[in-house]
Amino acid sequence: MPDTSSSTATSLTETSESPRLPEFPGGTTAQILPAVSFTFVCYLSIGIPLAILPPYVHLQLGYGTILAGLVISVQYIATVLSRPRAGRMIDAVGPKRVVVYGLLACAGSGVWMFAAAFFNHLPYVALLLILLGRLMLGVGESMVGTGASIWGIGRAGSQHIAKVISWNGVATFGALSVGAPLGVVLHQRVGFGAAGILILLLSLAAAVLALRLPRIPVPPSRHLPFAHIFWRVAPHGTALAFGGMGFGVLATFITLYFATLHWSGAAFTLSLYGVSFVCTRLLFAGLIPRLGGFPVAIVSLFIEVFGLLLLGFARVPSAAFAAAALIGFGFSLVFPSLAVEAVRHIPVENRGTALGTYNLFVDLSLFLAGPLAGAIISHAGYRPAFLSCAGGVFFAFCLTILLASRHHTPIST
């Protein structure tokens, strides 16, 4: 018999063959928040340069829009390449050590960014230093993002996996919504290098805090082959990748789009996206265990498509603000709802690898969104780029419907 949507949450608990991680006493939120706070610091390090790097590369260093998009996307080269390795490290040595390594990598990215500020007169040197920092930040993201999730699941228990992933997303986009305008203010009032110094200090402080928290036991190693895990996660990851295109193009090009139209409030647009994303996670994440991952993902992707269409046809800043809020509202539950379906049959000792692999798809999406949208912008303009992304999210909507139909179709014997 096929699984019913109401059984989604309980199906996430370990099977009799999987060792159960001990649960910490106290409320689940209190168990989860210390771990996901490191995600907040990591994505604050990502958010701070998010709104200032494309204008800096394009307007101050003098490079084109494709390269300005690539500067943001190159981070995801390192993230995509390091996700599987980070997942295996988490399964082997535990998430605490991997999170500390990742925070140190984030700190290193701040050093490179600070150094780049001294080479404005040598654009190629400044660009090289920025790219090195972006690559290091990508490694840090893969380690901290996945490690914090597994750390939170280990503290709260695997029956709370959807709640952990939801809180991790709140930390992610809460940090991005704070980091983007913070980076703009630092750049305007202190200078480009100040953003790098802040990233360095925040990441080092978080690493010290992580060392003071207790580790969780590492289950006995019984690793499935990576190819086996990859193909079990790939269909859900593909839907996630296309669903993530909206955020990728919004984060990378909204500042240049507003500048082209002589509008103000680009950083506010990113904040609206983040606030909408976080509020949706806090208010509606409970729908996933109640209704199932697929129904929530389908509705969410439909809303995201509508938001991207509104952005593509926006003629006034207020329409763009509303579009950003809708995109955040739509994409907010896509990640945890599809994650629940992707990893619920993965044994606990392989969940670090499974979540790392699942995250790889959104990394790939964010990596490709910048250059592809930049190419469309250079030939046709910004609005066709936004509408093209709407088409990609619509493909994710259709794929999720197909996966849901397969999930609920009885298998003939």
Layout of helices and strands:
Layout: H1 28-47, H2 53-60, H3 65-73, H4 75-93, H5 95-116, H6 123-156, H7 161-189, H8 192-212, H9 226-243, H10 245-260, H11 266-284, H12 287-291, H13 293-312, H14 317-331, H15 334-343, H16 351-380, H17 382-407
Helix pairs in contact: 1-5, 1-6, 1-7, 1-8, 2-3, 3-16, 4-5, 4-6, 4-16, 5-6, 5-8, 6-7, 6-16, 7-8, 7-11, 7-15, 9-15, 9-16, 9-17, 10-11, 10-14, 10-16, 10-17, 11-14, 13-14, 13-15, 13-17, 16-17
Index terms:
disordered N terminus, 78% helix, mainly alpha, Growth Hormone, Chain: A, 17 helices, 413 residues
CATH architecture: Up-down Bundle
**SS strand fraction:** under 5%
The CATH homologous superfamily is termed: MFS general substrate transporter like domains
Structural class by SSE content:
mainly alpha
Looking at how many chains there are and whether they match, the oligomeric state comes to: single chain
User: What's the total count of β strands?
Assistant: 0
Describe the structure.
It is globular and about 55 Å long. It has 17 helices and no strands. The N and C termini lie close together (11 Å). The relative contact order is 0.17. It has one domain: Growth Hormone, Chain: A. It is an all-alpha fold.
